[in-house]
């Protein structure tokens, strides 16, 4: 979570941004109280002067203040920081019970099964299913661009590939492996921390399946899961080791 000071800064900037006209300290005080802040007008005045000096706000005479471009950037930076802190807390919860060895065992099993599922999907998918696959990948790209997690799209993508294959035995096998609902968020967090892009892997699989190329689809899925394995290895060699030492 953000510090108390950062939360106050974020809320003040957001109030000014959302107002239809310049905002004065009186309106700010009342709105902040509604949000649960207990601050004096003197404290708000000092904060606004700090914002003026930093270029986050612009004074409009005695009417109050409006938000500058720098202020919008500051508000976005605070939102990004809060999102990353929340990700860290969620990851700590999700990682419970997931050590490196367990993750690698799951990924190796998935590689064997899902590579064949991808090849079969290229042969057996319907045109409607291919449209759904395109939609999932496009949604994942937009969600990533907005800075949000894409674990839901990851689950949907792999589940659809399994259905498209038309092999109930393999679909059941991979479904059993993927029963752990925290697996996708854990892997996504790891890939984020090692600067890896899952969307590119999914797009390569989508292209091979959509063009009915089973060999290429199989190899694209193998490459995807090999990348996941490499990301897990790299995460434990760097971030996880550093966290333990600290």
TrEMBL record:
This is GntR C-terminal domain-containing protein. Residues 105-227 form the GntR C-terminal domain. It holds the Pfam family WHD_RNase_R. SUPFAM superfamilies: GntR ligand-binding domain-like. Keywords: DNA-binding, Transcription, Transcription regulation. Gene3D superfamilies: GntR ligand-binding domain-like (1.20.120.530). GO terms for molecular function: DNA binding.
């Amino acid at each position: 979570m953000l510090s108390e000071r950062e939360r106050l800064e974020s809320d003040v900037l957001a109030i000014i941004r959302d107002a239809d006209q310049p905002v004065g300290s009186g309106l700010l005080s009342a709105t902040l109280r509604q949000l649960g802040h207990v601050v004096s007008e003197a404290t708000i005045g000092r904060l606004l002067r700090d914002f003026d000096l930093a270029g986050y706000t612009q004074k409009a005479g005695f009417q109050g203040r409006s938000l500058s471009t720098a202020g919008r950037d500051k508000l976005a930076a605070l939102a990004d920081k809060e999102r990353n802190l929340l990700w860290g807390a969620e990851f700590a919860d999700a990682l419970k019970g997931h050590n490196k060895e367990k993750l690698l065992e799951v990924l190796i099993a998935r590689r064997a099964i899902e590579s064949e599922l991808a090849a079969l999907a290229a042969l057996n998918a319907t045109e409607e299913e291919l449209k759904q696959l395109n939609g999932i990948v496009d949604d994942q790209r937009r969600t990533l661009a907005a800075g949000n997690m894409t674990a839901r799209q990851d689950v949907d993508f792999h589940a659809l590939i399994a259905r498209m294959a038309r092999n109930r035995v393999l679909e059941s096998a991979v479904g059993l492996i993927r029963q752990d609902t925290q697996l996708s968020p854990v892997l996504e967090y790891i890939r984020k921390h090692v600067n890896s892009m899952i969307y590119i892997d999914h797009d390569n699989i989508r292209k091979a399946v959509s063009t009915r190329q089973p060999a290429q689809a199989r190899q694209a899925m193998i490459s995807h899961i090999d990348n996941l394995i490499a990301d897990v290895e790299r995460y434990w060699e760097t971030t996880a080791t550093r966290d333990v030492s600290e």
